[in-house]
Design brief:
By secondary structure, the protein is α+β, with helices and mostly antiparallel strands. The chain is built from 5 helices and 19 strands.
C-alpha cells in the first residue's frame, strides 16, 4: 500500500493498494487535470529518482523560504518563520527528504504547520510526522483533506492566534477557508503578511490580484474582494510574501487596498472601456 501523490498538484492521499481514480483537488474548476491525463507517484519514488532537492533561502531576519528545484506539482513556496522559540511552517511543499529534515532541524525544527488552502496541503502529514508538529487548517476546508491525520487541528472563526503576534486570518475568496498569516513582529516590527495565493502578487510587485481559479482565469466576485479588502485593513503589515516568492517590500497594506479597488472597478465596468 502506498500514499499516492498527484503529479499535477503534488497533494498526497491516504494509503491505498491501487492509485486513486482521480485527484479530488485537480478534478474541480479551481485546478485542472493535466492535458496528458491523471498521473501518480509516491514520495519514496520521487526521492529515489534523485532529480529534486529543496533549497532553503534566508529571506529576512527570522524568515526562510523553502522551494523544490526543479519545480514539482504547482511549484509553490513554503516559509519557515522563527519567533520566540516557536518555529512555524507556512504552507507545504511535497518534496521532503532527510537532507531537508536535517537542515530545518539545524534552524530549530518545526513546532507547528499552518495552511492557506487545499492546493498547498501537498505532503503535509509527512512534514508533521517528521517534526511531530500539529497542522492547522480552517474547518471550512475540512472536505479537501486527502490524507487524514491525528496531527490535523481544524480551527474555526475568523482568526486564530498561534503564538503572540502570529495570527491566522480566514479571509476566504479562493477557498471558503482561505487563510493568510499575519506576523506582527516581522519586518522590524512593521509586520509581514504571508498570503499563499489567496492574495497573489503580480508581475511588477506593485499590485496584487484575487482569483477563484488562477489556472482557469476565473475571477472572484467584486463583493468577495470587497470583504477581503475590509478584513485585510485590520491586519498589521508593511511587507507581503505570496506563494511564489513574489514580495511587496514596502507599503504592502496600501497596495492591497489600491489593488482591491482596481479589481472591483474592473469587474463593475468602471475602470476602462474597450
Amino acid at each position: 500500500m502506498n500514499h499516492y501523490i498527484c503529479e499535477t498538484c503534488g497533494v498526497q492521499y491516504e494509503r491505498s493498494i491501487e492509485v486513486p481514480e482521480e485527484c479530488k483537488i485537480c478534478g474541480e474548476e479551481r485546478q485542472y487535470i493535466s492535458s496528458t491525463g491523471q498521473t501518480w507517484t509516491t514520495l519514496d519514488k520521487v526521492i529515489e529518482e534523485g532529480t529534486y532537492k529543496n533549497i532553503i533561502h534566508f529571506e529576512e531576519e527570522r524568515l526562510y523560504s523553502i522551494n523544490t528545484n526543479p519545480g514539482f506539482g504547482i511549484g509553490q513556496t513554503a516559509y519557515l518563520l522563527k519567533e520566540k522559540e516557536f518555529n512555524l511552517l507556512w504552507d507545504c511543499i511535497t518534496y521532503l527528504d532527510q537532507t531537508t529534515i536535517r537542515q530545518i532541524e539545524d534552524l530549530g525544527g518545526i513546532d507547528a504547520i499552518a495552511l492557506s488552502h487545499p492546493h498547498y496541503y501537498s505532503s503535509q502529514v509527512e512534514w508533521a510526522e517528521a517534526f511531530n508538529a500539529p497542522i492547522y487548517i480552517h474547518e471550512d476546508d475540512r472536505e479537501w483533506v486527502t490524507r487524514p491525520s491525528e496531527h490535523i487541528i481544524f480551527w474555526s472563526g475568523e482568526s486564530f492566534e498561534l503564538q503572540e503576534g502570529i495570527i491566522l486570518q480566514r479571509i476566504g475568496g479562493h477557498f471558503k477557508g482561505g487563510t493568510v498569516l499575519e506576523w506582527k513582529n516581522g519586518n522590524s516590527q512593521k509586520g509581514v503578511l504571508l498570503t499563499g495565493d489567496i492574495i497573489r502578487v503580480v508581475a511588477d510587485r506593485q499590485w496584487v490580484s484575487f482569483m477563484y481559479s488562477y489556472p482557469n482565469f476565473i475571477p472572484l466576485p467584486s463583493g468577495n474582494v470587497e470583504r477581503i479588502s475590509s478584513r485585510i485593513k485590520e491586519c498589521k503589515f508593511d511587507k507581503l510574501y505570496d506563494a511564489f516568492n513574489r514580495v511587496i517590500k514596502e507599503e504592502a497594506k496600501q497596495r492591497v487596498q489600491k489593488s482591491a479597488s482596481r479589481y472591483m472597478e474592473a469587474l463593475n465596468g468602471t475602470l476602462f472601456t474597450t
